[in-house]
Specification:
By secondary structure, the protein is an alpha/beta fold. Helix content is 45%, strand content 17%. It contains 15 helices and 14 strands. It is globular and about 65 Å long.
């Protein structure tokens, strides 16, 4: 089987979790499922136009740096799709693809056109939606443009894939598609990728003195990630527990507002905003933190929670979205707080920081729990969906 996968990011270009997902899925499909994978992506100034990385054939188109303003970004995406379509057409003429698989709206137009050109099934993975990112405000451009593309994508796809049951319900409801057309395949994690590279003792000493406890917040600094809730919760935690510091690792459109909030709350002397950091540093931060908090208002899956658990760092997550599937109920592998409730989050943080036996138990249970999210299994399930399409068998169904 030969598959063409389209993604707007692929290493060495990493904008977020999508690049890691597509890389790990592609490599596992090649390694374990005997699938020949070709990834079509943008290149910018990074990497050759064509290469084989870990068995995956990577084809790139040169694109200028994308603009940060959303209206200009949407126009940039249209141009990128035109370039991907032109390069993909050359590949389709040269190779005989069996399936075309596009990841998110950013490459949907090119992926569907290429599938039509090759007369093969089109698979679409929905990683997130504009509808939830903007709290349902998708009636005006540019959000309406993205929402319309996402709706079109899931309706024209022969198979829709999502990473959680929450996302399947959301996609079916918002876009008006039958749940039977949407399959759930969770994201994976490879603990071997999470190795620290820094001197951990020296790194921790940069951010916390002996006897202080360190709370870690990781991700894009945007409203839906809920970091404002964690900041609201911290003053009472510091008053009750004492000697608590925090780290915020990430960048985004909400960064200035979060810093201003921390200033108003008197928190700046208790923590550090690191800005964007690379994966190597992030993996080290998980190892030195006493707690990772994932306070998202909206979360399709919850990879940060998985990474923390795989790194031996206890976590507290919002009781919302895909986080419910990553951290099941019952205080077995992590703690949950009522989504959107800063006061309850503060109670959970205080509980975690003051109960060493609880932390030890959660870390031990979580390390076993994360083994359920295996990339080999993700690849197997994905290849099964490809095969079912080629056989003409029914797709979707409850996983």
């Amino acid at each position: 089987m030969r598959v063409l996968i389209l993604s707007w990011e692929y290493p060495p270009i990493v904008e977020g979790g999508l690049a890691r997902h597509v890389r790990k899925l592609s490599e596992a499909l090649v390694r374990d499922e005997d699938v020949e994978v070709h990834v079509l992506t943008r290149g910018g100034e990074h990497g050759p136009l064509d290469e084989v990385r870990h068995g995956v054939h990577v084809h790139r188109v040169r694109e200028p740096q994308y603009p940060r303003a959303l209206p200009e970004f949407v126009r940039w995406v249209r141009r990128m799709n035109a370039d991907l379509l032109a390069r993909g057409a050359e590949l389709a003429d040269e190779l005989s693809f069996d399936v075309v698989h596009g990841h998110d709206w950013l490459v949907a137009v090119a992926a569907k056109r290429l599938a039509d050109r090759a007369r093969v099934p089109f698979v679409a993975t929905v990683h997130a939606t504009a509808y939830v990112r903007h709290q349902g405000w998708v009636h005006k451009p540019p959000q309406s443009d993205i929402h319309r593309t996402e709706r079109w994508m899931v309706h024209v796809a022969d198979q829709v894939l999502v990473c959680s049951h929450y996302m399947r319900d959301h996609v079916a409801d918002v876009f008006g598609v039958d749940e039977s057309r949407v399959s759930v395949i969770p994201n994976g994690i490879d603990p071997r990728d999470l190795q620290p590279v820094e001197d951990l003792a020296a790194l921790r000493a940069r951010f916390a003195a002996p006897g202080e406890q360190l709370v870690l917040l990781v991700g894009r600094l945007v409203y839906e990630k809920g970091f404002q809730l964690a900041l609201d919760a911290l003053p009472d935690v510091i008053d009750a527990v004492g000697r608590v510091r925090f780290l915020v690792a990430g960048s985004g459109t909400h960064e200035a507002e979060l810093k201003a909030q921390a200033q108003r709350l008197g928190l700046m002397e208790h923590g550090t905003f690191l800005g964007w950091i690379g994966d190597d540093v992030l993996h080290s931060l998980y190892r030195i933190a006493d707690l990772t908090v994932v306070p998202s208002l909206y979360e399709p899956f919850g990879l940060v929670a998985l990474e923390a658990m795989a790194s031996g760092c206890p976590c507290i997550v919002a009781d919302t979205g895909g986080l419910r599937e990553v951290v099941p109920p019952g205080d077995r592998v992590g703690l949950r707080f009522n989504g959107g409730d800063a006061e309850h989050l503060g109670v959970m943080i205080e509980r975690m920081l003051t109960d060493a036996a609880l932390r030890d138990r959660l870390v031990a249970e979580a390390f076993e729990h994360v083994l359920r999210f295996d990339w080999d299994d993700v690849a197997r399930q994905t290849a099964e969906r490809y095969g079912a399409l080629l056989r003409g068998a029914p797709v979707g169904g409850r996983s």
